[in-house]
Amino acid sequence: MKNKALKRLIYGLSALLVCFSLFSFKLVSTVKRDTINNGFKLKTIIVDAGHGGAPTGTGHFSHGASGSYSTERGVTLAIALKLQKAIEKELTDTKVVLTRSTEDDVSWERRSAIANENKGNLFISLHCNSLADRVVREVVGHKHHKPVYKTVRVANHSGKGVLVLVYGLKRSREEEKAIKQNQLEEGEGDDAEMNSGLDPNDPESIILINQYKSKFRQRSIHLANLINTEFVETDGRPSEGIREQGVLVLCHSAMPAVLVETGYINNPDDEAYLNSEKGQDEIVNSIVRALKNYKDEVEQVAK
Fold first, then answer.
1. Residues 142, 148: contact at Cβ < 8 Å?
2. Where are the domains of the chain?
3. How deeply is 2 buried, as exposed, middle or buried, from its count of CB atoms within 10 A (0-12, 13-18, 19+)?
């Protein structure tokens, strides 16, 4: 093998795989040592405010879900701006990059590109959940002594609480492409010298790509667990737990990534919470606490 440093990294990554199981979304123990890259620092976090309004001069409009008086685009932007300030205050050596800072929408392709171009170490996408209307049949009269039915749509306000998503394995090929472009070809932060000049089609590089995939997935699931625990145990929020889903913006970002559904905006109680200072501050503070724990673990802080 030409690159001894690469060989050591691959062996270290392989050892890590033995220690972790990918078949469970609940990590039993806390990671205290990361053999993937000693000296790793959480330098850049990408904060993605989901959806947005129509950019000036375009017909594209993706405001996302709506409540009785607010929209997902507005709520996620408000939380994202607060989260940026809180992270930069509490994690002073970490930079935050927003995928959007205005009401204008940004395509998912551009959001992933922003994350990769800025060499993000972590991607957090903020969204609001919503349930589709229920379709029911109502009796509207009778004819020849038989009921006449009409199909109507009824708002479904039963959804409540948070949900955290990680990318689904079925999107692994797209993730591989992002890793090739942003981890191997250009190098990733502390690994830049090690990875420079590697051929993404070389068998050794393919092994490295798979190890990156495993690392990112493990860290995504672990961060999702940390965030969900804060929401439930600290804020007392209802939670639907952690799920995997083929979210394009997650699997195209070459880094650990989670999507946080902060609440059901079409539920009156959740909408009020999401639009309140108290609710937004609780969401932000819970994410920041989770990030502090995550940062300590991945940076191998001695306890």
1. yes
2. 44-130+160-179+215-298
3. exposed
Average pLDDT value for the chain: 78
Who wins on pLDDT, 298 or 21? 298
Strand partners, 295: none
What CA–CA distance (Å, rounded) separates 91 from 294? 11
264 touches 279 (CB < 8 A)? no
Q: For the chain, what percentages of helix, strand and coil (3-state, to nearest 5) are there?
A: 45, 20, 35
**What contacts 129, CB < 8 A, 6 or more positions away?**
65, 159, 163, 261, 262, 263, 264, 265
pLDDT, mean of residues 117-123: 94
pLDDT over 50 at 248, yes or no: yes
Interior angle at CA 208, CA 205 and CA 212, nearest 5: 140
Residue recorded with tokens 């904060």: 47
CA distance 285 to 279: 10
State the pTM of this model. 0.76
**Alpha carbons 298 and 303: distance in angstroms, whole number:** 13
CATH 3.40.630.40 fits 44-130+160-179+215-298, yes or no: yes
Please determine, for residue 31, whether its predicted confidence score (pLDDT) is greater than 50: no
In whole angstroms, give the CA distance from residue 36 to residue 31: 12
One-letter amino acid identity for 195?
N
The pLDDT tens digits for 201-239 are 666 655 666 677 778 889 999 999 999 999 999 999 999
Cβ atoms of residues 262 and 82 within 8 Å: no
Number of H helices, E strands in the chain: 9, 8
Strand 239-245 with 257-264, pairing: unpaired
